[in-house]
Amino acid sequence: MIGPARVRVALANGGHDVLVGRGLLTGLGGLLTRLGQFRRIHLFEDVGVPKALRDVAASSIDARLTRTEYGLDEATKSMASLERMLQDLASAGLERGDLAVVVGGGILGDVAGLAAGLHRRGVGVVQCPTTLLSMVDASVGGKTGVNLAVLADPTRVLLKNAVGMFHQPSLVVADVETLVSLPDRAFRCGLAECIKHAVIAGTETGGMLDLDALSSCLPMGPTTDAERLVSLVRENIGLKAAVVAGDEQELAQGAAPGRRALNLGHTFAHAIEGCEGVRVEIEGRLVHPSHGEAVGIGLIASARLGEAVGLTPPGLADKIQAVVARAGLPVHLVEVPDIGDLMSAMRQDKKSSGGVLRLVVPTREGVSMLDDPGDSALAGAWRHVRGR
Ligand code: GLY
Q1: Most exposed residue of 45, 192, 287, 338, measured as fewest CB within 10 angstroms of its CB?
Q2: Do 209 and 171 sit in the same domain of this protein?
Q3: Measured from the CB, is residue 197 less than 6 Å from ligand 1?
Q4: Model confidence over 248-274: pLDDT tens digits?
């Protein structure tokens, strides 16, 4: 076992710990006792995590335990899945003071976290992220949600995380051992969020939050040395924890980005994910991009946009593109039915406010807000990431 290293997420209600190490899930029950004794615990499990590991984690828990397993994707990150999870919690008889524990990736964590927040107006939840993406981003900060498919004449658009709430976990347990069985593609998707954090950190930081240092560590994969993975996860969680502590519910007003900094690249990414006809090339095949792949391209597009309006220093977009490529992530959209579809999907993203599209762009020091730069600048950024 390595660790656990502890990162504190300091919040108005006192906050919670994030534990990072290798082999933590085998002693999950012991870690939960840090929070108290629970009468009932319901375990939401991701079918993507080896059953043997889930069984070991479950057997370490000393409480009346119920378990359900899910294999969700963006299409099933839906109200229907949320309803099933609420039924799980009701059938398990969970009451206030009991606990839901999630062992899985970011999609499961988001839906199960929402179910925990809604069941009996809220039961505690412990997130045990098992993908790099959920370790460094989704499991920390309390955002939960499901997608909503809406008709935006004439196409159907998937509004990402359109229904959700803030429901902070009581504890996050990030066991890098779970990354060993992660497909390479899924691992790379997590690297997109690490690159995002390095851009947000700006030029004054070191370690894995320095864009050059991160780049020199790439490529990384599920079998990278565990100590290095623990450092990567710990440093990224540290950055995220600091941002969330400063603006827990993304309420910062005006020019200060607050938690909105973490949306860097995401308005572009959500538009990419929501337009079904978009394709990227992954391992020689044309596929619809997953979240991390869309974020990688979104980071490049937001830097291109920032350069065009003079907020991003010249050359940073090229540098970000080079790091995204070194991570093994796509840097272009190969098939784009119509840039107009992407632009209208962007305008429907929940990150627009009062009809004004609010974007985040990189600067030398980190990031800055950019209010609706207009269709021509947006189309220019999209053209940069559209394949030739
Ligand atoms: N993933 C962005 C946030 O947690 O705010």
Answers
A1: 338
A2: no
A3: no
A4: 999 998 888 999 999 999 999 999 988
